[in-house]
Design brief:
The chain has one domain. It is globular. By secondary structure, it is mostly helical. The chain is 75% helix and 0% strand. The chain has 15 helices and no strands.
Length: 338
């Protein structure tokens, strides 16, 4: 299980970067940031595809259809919703809602496993209960502290309008739904299709994302140009800064993050992998406080400790579970370049 846990940690560290990008580029909408990020991801995937032509040739029609679905829901839709939520309601609220992903992924994975080829992955509910409760308590601790810093929006309407606040909640819930569906489907597909190498699968998702992201970026610029009556560049008002940040998160948070998560998904039961997404929440909090230049308050630290304890308990319980020792995902990986 160690390779799966380490790669899940790595994925969380790079995915945490996406939470601060909307704060670094506040003049860009969440939709524009999503299209920009996945245009960069797609271009990077094209470069990698040149070295992985044989791996891509092994993909079947059903694989490409699934890659397209995962790209649209787990990439473009998710990040557009998340970035919009952060800009509308500030970072703590989306972090609180998205931070509950380990709970929802584990629950839905267990509830739906009997309907799929993943019935062997069903985990006894007693093995899920305590880790999930500890993780959820940690998330609540972290976000009670964060939400207390926001102030009373009713007494101070200039801070944030109620409309923006509740729209941010809606966007966060949309992102939560997208990323509850994504890792479950991604994990099950890559486990039951052993002809797919994790690197190939990350590349395929980037390739299927590229045309949609490029078209979306262009259409967004055309709509903005029509509304303003003057040409608006698809790269926005600060093209150099925008391109640099998009390339960084396109490489790290999209391609590398997807690659690491694919490795993790192959080595771990889906319900356990879902709980390890808590690493993303911890990384997002770390980067947010680094950006602020402040130390986290005691309640945030306590919540982070609880998150880590919940994950540690989950790993220990899963190691003792028959699922961990009879996981068909833990198989030899095909060579990338034959």
């Amino acid at each position: 299980m160690l390779p799966g846990i380490v790669t899940a940690l790595g994925a969380g560290l790079v995915w945490g970067l996406v939470f601060i990008v909307p704060l670094l580029l506040p003049e860009y909408s969440g939709v524009q940031l999503s299209f920009g990020r996945y245009t960069a991801f797609g271009l990077i995937a094209l470069v990698v595809a040149m070295a992985d032509r044989r791996g891509l040739a092994r993909l079947r029609r059903a694989d490409w259809i699934m890659a397209a679905k995962l790209s649209l829901v787990g990439n473009i839709a998710y990040y557009a919703a998340l970035a919009s939520a952060i800009q509308l309601a500030d970072a703590p609220l989306p972090t609180m809602i998205i931070g509950t992903l380990p709970v929802w992924i584990s629950l839905f994975s267990n509830l739906t496993s009997h309907r799929s080829q993943a019935a062997h992955e069903t985990i006894p509910w007693k093995h899920l209960l305590w880790p999930l409760l500890i993780i959820l308590t940690g998330i609540i601790f972290v976000n009670i502290s964060e939400m207390s810093q926001l102030g009373n929006i009713t007494d101070n309407p200039s801070q944030r309008s109620l409309q923006n606040y509740f729209t941010g909640i809606g966007c966060s819930l949309a992102g939560l739904a997208a990323w509850t569906w994504y890792p479950i489907q991604n994990s099950r597909h890559i486990k039951h299709n052993h002809h797919i190498h994790p690197i190939t699968w990350a590349t395929a998702q980037g390739i299927t994302t590229l045309p949609v992201a490029l078209l979306g970026l262009l259409l967004y610029a055309l709509v903005q140009s029509h509304q303003r009556g003057v040409w608006v560049s698809p790269l926005g008002p600060d093209a150099g800064r925008f391109c640099l940040i998009m390339l960084v998160i396109g490489l790290m948070a999209s391609w590398v993050g997807t690659l690491l998560w694919n490795f993790s998904s192959r080595h771990l039961p889906t319900a356990l992998a879902g709980q390890l997404i808590v690493f993303e929440t911890l990384a997002a909090l770390l980067y947010a406080f680094l950006l602020r230049g402040t130390l986290p308050p005691p309640m945030v630290l306590a919540g982070a400790v609880l998150l880590c304890l919940g994950v540690a308990l989950a790993v220990r319980l899963f190691q003792a579970s028959p699922v961990a020792n009879n996981n068909p995902g833990c198989m030899a990986e095909p060579d990338l370049l034959e």
